[in-house]
Amino acid sequence: RVRIHDSSALSHARLALDGRRKRSTTANRLRVLIRASRLRSGRHRIKVTATDTAGNRGTRVVRFTRCTKRG
């Protein structure tokens, strides 16, 4: 879950998975469902970038690893 808070209005937000843009919006809400079962095993990265109407930009990166069950 990612929440974007700012005292100015949100101008633009984007979400990328493994360097590929999945969704972007100019609305105040960005909702994306990522199904882990559809990801290959290994390391992944989600990057969210938000820009407000004053031109300030913030970025958050989350790294995770998907493991498959062996058996």
Quick structural gist:
This protein is mainly β.
Structure, described:
By secondary structure, the chain is mainly beta. Helices cover 0% and strands 49% of the residues. The chain has no helices and four strands. The protein has strands at 10-17, 20-25, 42-52, 57-66. A four-stranded antiparallel sheet has the order 2-1-3-4, with no helix packed on it. It is elongated, with a radius of gyration of 14 Å. The chain starts with 9 loop residues before the first strand and ends in a 5-residue tail after the last strand. The model has no long low-confidence stretch (mean pLDDT 86).
Topology:
Elements: E1 10-17, E2 20-25, E3 42-52, E4 57-66
Antiparallel strand pairs: 1-2, 1-3, 3-4
Main sheet summary: 4 strands, antiparallel
Q: Write down the secondary-structure element order.
A: EEEE
Helix/strand class: mainly beta
Give the DSSP E fraction (strand runs of 2 or more residues).
over 45%
Q: Counting H and I runs of at least 4 residues, what is the number of helices?
A: 0
Sheet with most strands: strand arrangement? 2-1-3-4
> What share of residues is helical?
under 10%
Low-confidence stretches: none
Count of distinct strands: 4
Q: On the 0-100 scale, what is the average pLDDT?
A: 86
Q: How widely separated are the two ends? A: 31 Å
Oligomer: single chain
Q: Overall 3D geometry?
A: elongated
**Structural Rg:** 14 Å
